[in-house]
Specification:
Length: 88
């Protein structure tokens, strides 16, 4: 169980680091992104372990999926939002 948690945190950090590396201009502070990735990975492992049992591969896949979803919630739009009225 300890190795599942450790592996999921490491994978969550890897997902977050990759997002920071590729999308640094669209993300908030690096510390926030890295901690969100780690927490998302840990929560994903817990959720997958609770739902599916002790299969390590499935737990790590679930951890990566939840970490990716958590980090994706931090991404901001690339440019300025343009609002057009319906009458123009």
């Amino acid at each position: 169980m300890f190795l599942e948690a450790l592996g999921s945190v490491i994978l969550g950090l890897a997902v977050a680091w990759l997002a920071v590396y590729r999308l640094s201009h669209r993300l908030p502070a690096r510390r926030l992104v890295l901690s969100t990735g780690a927490a998302g990975g840990l929560f994903g492992a817990f959720l997958t372990h609770s739902a599916l049992g002790g299969n390590l591969l499935l737990i790590l896949i679930g951890a990566v999926a939840v970490a990716t979803a958590s980090v994706s919630l931090l991404v901001r739009p690339a440019g300025r939002l343009r609002r057009h009225s319906a009458t123009v």
